Amino acid sequence: MQEAQSGAEASEPVAPPQAATGSNGNAMIDVVDLHKTYVMGDMEVHALRGVSLQITQGEMVAIMGPSGSGKSTMMDILGCLSQPTSGSYLLEGVSIGEVSDNRLAELRNQKIGFVFQSFNLLPRMSALHNVELPLIYAGTSRRERRRRAIQSLEAVQLGDRVHHKSNELSGGQIQRVAIARALVTDPAIIFADEPTGNLDSRTSTDIMNLFTQLHANGNTMVLVTHEPEIAGYCQRIIRLRDGEIESDEWIKEMSPLAKEIHGERAMSAPPTHSGDDD
Ligand code: ADP
Ligand code: MG
User: Fold this and answer.
1) Residue 159 and residue 167: Cα distance in Å, rounded?
2) Residue 69 Cβ contacting ligand 1 at under 6 Å
């Protein structure tokens, strides 16, 4: 058992937890020894068991792993939608565990764009209104809201669908509205949990081309997928198994900033395509 002993044996030097992972103040995301335990009645589910990782500005990362391996739990924590049971999380240098609930909501609104598998749009509202929502929470003026929502919808090629309601759009268009909503606050980082999970393969390709373009424009993206074809669009693949990192590999060239933070890591072969069911 580990326990925190403040006071006792104060002269004993203790290595900071960051030392083990080579933490560096420049990482956009820096998590150390994250644990998440769900308690259900008298049963405990250890969804994350000591995950440490860093993500640099401008990376495009896939998180893979079998169902139940902790991918969504991890994304929800990284996206500040839930808190870990223990461990530390620095988002652009801010210690997420130490900020107030109000500040956390503010950070989430300013820094994070989140895209869900199930889209999470309000079905009876227009694309425009759905995309404006985060700006309403941010207190942006109506005029500015409208301007930015339209710009964001244009960025996902939906400039001609701004007044359509979700139930008047195709699955791929709905997901693009969800992406426009994630982009509208100009977040530092975009998280997407199985963003193509409910889409056919052609539409998935469109969405991944859109993500690739956003990445090329400088956005930092982290996405969960269990499809190797989708992960193949990313630079780096982190694999989870039973709540732990099983592997963390680069499949494409690192940027100079990433090299500085991660050091030189071996590149692995890109994931092989699992079939030709297209
Ligand atoms: P993945 O996204 O990789 O499928 P999850 O993060 O959703 O995995 O789940 C990891 C583990 O935690 C699973 O065993 C799951 O059943 C459990 N779990 C996830 N969310 C909850 C919750 N809200 N309450 C209890 N157990 C949960
Ligand atoms: Mg999941």
Assistant:
1) 17
2) yes
Q: Model confidence over 160-217: pLDDT tens digits?
A: 999 999 889 999 999 999 999 999 998 989 999 999 988 888 889 989 998 999 899 8
**Would you say the CB of residue 68 lies under 6 angstroms from ligand 1?**
yes
Q: Is 71 in the pocket of ligand 1 (CB under 6 A)?
A: yes
Q: What are the angstrom distances between the C-alpha of 120 and each of 51, 126, 166?
A: 28, 13, 10
> Over the stretch 157-175, which tens digit does the pLDDT of each residue have?
999 999 999 889 999 999 9
Domains of the chain (ranges; CATH) run 58-84+100-262 (3.40.50.300)
φ, ψ (nearest 5 deg) of residue 130: -60, -40
Helical H segments across the chain, by residue range? 71-78, 101-111, 127-137, 142-155, 171-183, 201-216, 228-231, 256-262
Which residue stretches of 66-112 are H helix?
A: 71-78, 101-111
- Ligand 1 within 6 A of CB of 58: no
Dig out the tokens for 228 from the structure: 């190797």
Nearest CA to ligand 1 atom 13: 68
**Burial degree of 211 (CB within 10 A; 0-12, 13-18, 19+):** buried
215/195 Cα distance (integer angstroms): 15
Confidence of residue 22 (pLDDT cuts 50, 70, 90): very low
- Which strand (E) or helix (H) includes residue 245? strand 244-250
User: How many Å apart are CA 162 and CA 146, to the nearest integer?
Assistant: 10
- Provide the b/e sequence for 102-136 (b: ≥16 CB within 10 Å): eebeebbbebbbbbbbebebeeeebbbbbbbbbbe
